[in-house]
Write a structure and sequence with these properties.
With 223 residues, this protein is an alpha/beta fold. It has a single domain, classed as Aldolase class I (TIM Barrel, Alpha-Beta Barrel), CATH 3.20.20.70. 35% of the residues lie in helices and 18% in strands. The chain has an eight-stranded parallel beta sheet. Strand 6, helix 5 and strand 7 form a beta-alpha-beta unit. It is globular and about 45 Å long. Bound molecules: D-xylitol-5-phosphate and zinc ion. The site of zinc ion has 6 residues, from strand 2. D-xylitol-5-phosphate (DX5) binds next to strand 2, strand 8 and helix 7.
């Protein structure tokens, strides 16, 4: 099993001081910057685009930026985010007419890529593209907003996804997004996840290092 990665979602950060917030959360021990892109079309909310990703790179952020596209269609924004310094680009299969082509596009542009499955989307959609996935991201809330509660059925899905990935022999990270905090991160890991998105659990606390340390301790205690 690969190392655990903690990916704070900047959706819950203070956008007026985004560069500093990202610096602070990385200094506090975060591994990856989770960057939620919403278009008020695929999901009922509107957030940030490639200019903001580029601005974080220009500000000096060198950590991996994990761009979670909640947009439809995806291909044009895959190109724009690859140009803007994205490291990982994931998208929802329902939002691309040609999923295999969109995955190839992101990879050809030098990014790690993968699919994001909504709570009601079955795992079958990944079966014939597993060789193209670097990441499988399972939503544990319905996409569109931070601060929602973790949907318990996700545990079954994480277990099944872990089995599929292990059986495939491919090197695919299993990331989970939504409603993750100190209280449930160990359970999410025990089900088979290795990459954890957390927005409000981290940014709504004054001390980011304290929350991230508590998350790491919870994960360590599992080993
Ligand atoms: C929801 C986003 C999540 C969100 C997670 O559509 O994809 O990344 O920011 O936020 P929390 O951790 O607050 O549930
Ligand atoms: Zn997300």
């Amino acid at each position: 099993m690969s190392d655990y990665l903690i990916a704070p979602s900047i959706l819950a950060a203070d956008f007026a001081r985004l560069g500093e917030e990202v610096d602070e959360v990385l200094s506090a021990g975060a591994d990856v910057v989770h960057f939620d892109v919403m278009d008020n079309h695929y999901v009922p909310n509107l957030t940030i685009g490639p200019m903001v990703c580029q601005a974080l790179r220009d500000y000096g952020i060198t950590a991996p930026i994990d761009v979670h596209l909640m947009v439809e269609p995806v291909d044009d924004l895959i190109k724009q985010f690859a140009d803007a310094g994205a490291s990982w680009i994931t998208f929802h299969p329902e939002a691309s007419k040609h999923v295999d082509r969109s995955l190839q596009l992101a990879q050809d542009l030098g990014c790690k890529t993968g699919l994001v499955l909504n709570p009601a989307t079955g795992l079958e959609v990944i079966r014939h593209v597993m060789d193209r996935l670097d990441i499988l991201l399972l939503m544990s809330v319905n996409p569109g907003f931070g601060g929602q509660s973790f949907i318990p059925e996700t545990f079954n899905k994480i277990e099944q996804a872990r089995q599929l990935i292990d059986d495939s022999g491919y090197d695919i990270r299993l990331e989970v997004d939504g409603g993750i905090g100190v209280a449930n991160i160990a359970e999410v890991a025990a089900a088979g996840a290795d990459t954890f998105v957390a927005g409000s659990a981290i940014f709504r606390n004054d001390d980011y290092a304290e929350v991230i340390d508590q998350m790491r301790t919870a994960l360590e205690n599992l080993r």
